[in-house]
Amino acid sequence: MNFYPIFLREMLIFKRRLLRIGYLFSTMVTPLLYLVAFGLGLGRGISIEGVSYLAFVVPGICAMSSMTNSYSWIATTIAVGRLHFKTFDEFQVSPVTATDIMLGEVLSGVVRGLFASSLILVAGAIFGAGFPKSPVFFPVWLLNCLIFASFGVIAGFRAKSHEDTATFSNFFIMPMAFFCGTFFPVDRLPYFIKAVLYFLPLTHASKALRASFLGQGVEIISLGIMLAVFVVCFYWGVITIRRSNR
Amino acid sequence: MIITENLTKYFGQIKAVEKLNLHIVKGEIFGLLGPNGAGKTTTVRMLNTLTLPTSGRAEINGLDVVREATKVKRLIGVAPQELNLDRELTGRENLRLHGLLHQMKGIEERIEYLLKWTGLSERADSLVKTYSGGMQRRLLVARSIMHRPGVLFLDEPTVGLDPQVRRQIWDLIRNLKQQGVTVLLTTHYIEEAELLCHRVGILSHGKLIVLGTPPELKAQIGRFVVESLDDGVTNYRLFEGREEAYRFAQTRGDDVVIRESNLEDVFIKLTGERIER
């Protein structure tokens, strides 16, 4: 296994970008706007499923933020690196395996996803939502980042143009962000929509993160589905890398 | 050693390289010369495992580039035509990552040596995006030999550089020649091929049309060229001896140039086209 140089490269770039105020602000601004608008504005005084709306929405936004940041960083980096700067050719002419590349990229996506969503948790705590009550929250959070970082690798390697990653994001990532239990329980939706949403990983991530955040029991089926999606996506990513440029 | 046997690549219906046969020996600097689109980069990409051949085979130091790709990658260094350095990393970081990808020992010492060799020591800790084109090209060459490869692919190593920087790159390549590295160099600069390469293969429309040392190839067409402008079009006439060329030139009026033949004349003679400069 030699995934470290791939991971290190992404971390060096990430470190430099973090030092730019504009970058940090742009990472934070959307989820914070949702948190303020829905958690403190629209949801003030409202309780849902027996808890304050703020406590309900914080784990949902955490799931959404970890998804979008894990996905978008990786998908964009890979697509631009492959198609524009050709930096990925350097990995592909080096004696590293497709699994090394996949692992290095996914772990870097996880770091970014965890970093961005941890800021949401801190902001939520400052606003009064509290901290996760069950330690199960943390492995679920990690698993969510692993799933969407893996998606990011697949999208980045399958993209034929930079716009393709945005298209995938608009048709897949954004609808999930709004419909998979981030802002309201999926159970409120009509049956046929609900049936579709239960096949999507963010639905289970939102449910499991929310349950563990509030100290409730996490459904094993949600963890099983998330784990299965991760294994499939990771393997699919390795195959995609192996077949790229051929 | 690099061997190709009937190496062929099609992109859909488009023929990029057709039945290429090469035998490049250890320590040789071999030039693939041809205009843009002749198939030079595709050949290099097949040999450095980035592109699968449609048919035929290739081996490097006895290892098949398709079946034993990972082992081949340990042997080769690649400086592609594109400046594919990480622009948001420093020069030193680019070299260090390359060393880590190849699981090298003594990375820091090697980095220092290469930075000095390429004259980049003072800018080693600056971001690559602040480097000039020539500095990036020198760093690219340094990176390609960081892990001490026995076989090196240099794809258009001086494209777009000014003459002074081009000569700096040539010096680096001549140094590699002294170190016994086998080099496959692609270029469409005639002077570069003549100056650096032991042997040259000329590609046109994906086919190898001629192969030999630069003096051999030039001897095949004649040592002297008379260029004359006839009805707004430059015509080329080739002659074995200077006297013969001079006598012909006297019959063509004032707008005439007599010079020694070069590899571009070989190309023109064989294809009727020019290698773009």
List keywords for this structure.
heterodimer, A: 246 residues, mainly alpha, two-stranded antiparallel ribbon, B: 277 residues, alpha/beta, six-stranded mixed sheet, four-stranded antiparallel sheet
* Rg for CA atoms of chain B: 21 Å
The chain-level structural class of chain B is alpha/beta
Major sheet attributes of chain A: 2 strands, antiparallel
Biggest chain pair interface: A-B, 22 and 27 residues
Q: How would you characterize this protein structure?
A:
Chain A is mainly α. Chain A contains ten helices and two strands, in the order ααββαααααααα. In chain A, α1 runs parallel beside α5, α3 packs antiparallel against α5 and α9 packs across α10. Chain A is globular and about 55 Å long. The mean pLDDT of chain A is 90. Chain B is an alpha/beta fold and 277 residues long. Chain B has ten helices and 13 strands. In chain B, α3 crosses α4, α3 runs parallel beside α5 and α5 packs parallel to α6. Chain B is globular and about 65 Å long.
Layout of SSEs?
The complex is a heterodimer of chains A (246) and B (277).
Chain A: H1 4-18, H2 21-42, E1 47-48, E2 51-52, H3 53-83, H4 88-92, H5 98-127, H6 137-158, H7 162-179, H8 191-197, H9 201-213, H10 220-243
Antiparallel strand pairs in A: 1-2
Helix pairs in contact in A: 1-5, 2-3, 2-5, 3-5, 3-6, 3-7, 3-9, 5-6, 5-10, 6-9, 6-10, 9-10
Chain B: E1 2-11, E2 14-24, E3 29-33, H1 40-47, E4 55-60, E5 63-64, H2 69-75, E6 76-79, H3 91-101, H4 107-117, H5 133-145, E7 151-155, H6 163-178, E8 182-187, H7 190-196, E9 199-204, E10 207-212, H8 214-221, E11 224-230, E12 233-239, H9 242-250, E13 256-260, H10 263-271
Parallel strand pairs in B: 3-8, 3-9, 6-7, 7-8
Antiparallel strand pairs in B: 1-2, 1-4, 4-5, 9-10, 11-12, 11-13
Helix pairs in contact in B: 3-4, 3-5, 5-6, 8-10
